[in-house]
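Section 5: illustrative case.
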């Protein structure tokens, strides 16, 4: 069979615009699946990961709004697990439909994934990961006052809540995922970066955090010994001087190039920066690996080398 690839979907692949209803998000997953199936039909063994920022943020708001003594709100890790099941269900149904329509007998399966982090990770002292919807400054100030949220301005698009984002160390279900992939199943795993857990004795315990899905996807790509790591986002290319008159889109780049741009603060934290850092981690983890950052619509062309930003060591 072909090369193993991890495809890390951005939030826009699941929810676009104001389409927050289940029906809207299922439609988005169906359109996304059409693009993923192109990679499957090209012979790649595909593992799909996805973001969950808007979804987990909305679930947390719903939990907070309805909580009472008899119905306590669920913690962040449990809400993350809810989104893994919910979005995985939408994606696997959509992938199965597109595959069957195209005459394939392949099937998709979702693995609710736990990602191990270090309980001493300094990220717990400095929340940085945006989750949930965008708010105006006035709305953000109210949430800070009433709910104690940490809110930041996010890349000029509004204000969002931020939570701790520790680095992934291991994927608990890596063996099961590998077995499914090698048997020809299209696996959906690591949703929202996985459920953050720490090791306590012989058990895993969930913690209040959200792991960056690109960093978790990269860790899974390493553990599965993938040849290619594809990060799909809202833009066709990584750019320097983003949004300025001298904006420059990047095609073929080296790790040294990207490290230089990181030193110049070219990539926004919580947005493009973790995608670039994940790409660097992957291509430097073993010789011959390639990372690609591009849009969903350009994914098929990007693996052919004719579009997107391609990173090599």
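Designed sequence:
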């Amino acid at each position: 069979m072909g090369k193993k690839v991890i495809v890390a979907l951005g939030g826009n692949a699941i929810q676009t615009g104001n389409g927050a209803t289940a029906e809207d998000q299922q439609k988005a997953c169906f359109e996304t699946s059409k693009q993923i199936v192109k990679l499957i039909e090209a012979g790649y063994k595909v593992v799909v990961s996805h973001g969950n920022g808007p979804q987990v943020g909305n679930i947390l708001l719903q939990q907070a709004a309805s909580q009472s003594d008899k119905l306590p709100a669920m913690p962040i890790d449990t809400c993350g697990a809810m989104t893994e099941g919910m979005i995985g269900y939408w994606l696997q149904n959509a992938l199965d439909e597109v595959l069957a329509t195209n005459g394939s007998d392949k099937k998709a399966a979702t693995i609710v994934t736990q990602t191990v982090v270090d309980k001493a990770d300094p990220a717990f002292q400095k929340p940085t990961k945006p989750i949930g919807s965008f708010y105006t400054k006035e709305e953000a100030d109210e949430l800070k006052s009433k709910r104690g949220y940490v809110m930041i301005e996010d890349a000029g698009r509004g204000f969002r809540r931020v939570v701790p984002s520790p680095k992934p160390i291991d994927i608990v279900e890596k063996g099961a995922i590998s077995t499914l992939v090698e048997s020809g199943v299209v696996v959906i795993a690591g949703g929202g970066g996985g459920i953050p857990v720490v090791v306590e004795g012989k058990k895993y315990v969930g913690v209040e955090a959200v792991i960056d899905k690109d960093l978790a996807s990269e860790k899974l790509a390493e553990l599965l010994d993938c040849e290619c790591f594809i990060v799909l986002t809202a833009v066709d290319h990584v750019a320097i001087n983003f949004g300025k008159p001298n904006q420059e889109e990047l095609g073929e780049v080296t790790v040294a190039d990207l490290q230089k741009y990181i030193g110049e603060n070219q990539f926004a934290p919580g947005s493009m920066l973790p995608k670039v850092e994940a790409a660097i981690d992957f291509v430097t983890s073993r010789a011959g690996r390639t990372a690609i950052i591009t849009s969903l619509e350009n994914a098929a062309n990007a693996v052919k080398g004719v579009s997107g930003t391609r990173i090599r060591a």
